[in-house]
Amino acid sequence: MSVDALKSALPGYAKDTKLNLGSVTSTSALSDQQLWGTVLATALASRNAQVIRELAEEAGDYLSAEAFEAAKGAASIMAMNNIYYRSTHLIGDETYATLPAKLRMSIIGKPGVDKIDFELWCLAVSAVNGCGRCLESHEKVLRDGGLSRERIQEALRVAAVVHATAVTLEGEAALAPATV
């Protein structure tokens, strides 16, 4: 299994990450689509090729083709939105919040999967990318849609663990001696 391959690749000092990776992917109260869409979207947001390959392979066992594409779409649209909305927020001039973004975001309105699932994936990617404005917006939509704080927190845990896995493996690759 791909999660197992990543757990095996993690070094000893990342024991907590290894245990958490196993836990968040095997004991989740999220539906399979919610969980594995979150895993895939946050793996893509992590930008680590090894993590993306391994987790995409396993996510494919749980997601329909439409859900797989929608999770990729969540990672893509939030890569754009997180930069834009985080920047307009961090500038500190609220006038920017009143200006139209003029960015195409039609996938958010018609993601091809359950809207709550897509919003959950967007929230998780926003956590990885550190956009407070997007986190607030997606959390509100999720809560208004009936998702509990515990389920939202669970998606945030998945995002944190997937990202920690990616950062750890990227660091190990950078520290490894070059081979000729």
Automatic annotation (TrEMBL):
Q: Which GO terms describe its biological process?
A: cell redox homeostasis; response to oxidative stress
Ordered alphabetically, the record's keywords are: Antioxidant, Disulfide bond, Oxidoreductase, Peroxidase, Redox-active center
Q: Which InterPro entries match?
A: AhpD (IPR004674), AhpD-like (IPR029032), AhpD_core (IPR004675), CMD-like (IPR003779)
User: Superkingdom, according to UniProt?
Assistant: Bacteria
Q: Which reaction does it catalyse?
A: N(6)-[(R)-dihydrolipoyl]-L-lysyl-[lipoyl-carrier protein] + a hydroperoxide = N(6)-[(R)-lipoyl]-L-lysyl-[lipoyl-carrier protein] + an alcohol + H2O
A Pfam match is CMD
What is the disulfide pattern of this chain?
Answer: 131-134
Q: Which EC number(s) does UniProt give?
A: 1.11.1.28
Which Gene Ontology terms cover its molecular function?
A: disulfide oxidoreductase activity; hydroperoxide reductase activity; peroxiredoxin activity
Q: Which residues form the active site?
A: 131, 134
Q: Specify whether Oxidoreductase is a keyword of the entry.
A: yes
Domain Carboxymuconolactone decarboxylase-like residue range list: 98-173
Protein purpose: Antioxidant protein with alkyl hydroperoxidase activity. Required for the reduction of the AhpC active site cysteine residues and for the regeneration of the AhpC enzyme activity.
Record family assignment? Belongs to the AhpD family.
The record's listing under PANTHER family reads: ALKYL HYDROPEROXIDE REDUCTASE AHPD (PTHR33930:SF7)
Oligomer status and interactors: Homotrimer.
Listed NCBIfam families: ahpD, ahpD_dom
Protein name from the UniProt record: Alkyl hydroperoxide reductase AhpD
Name of the gene this protein is made from: ahpD_2
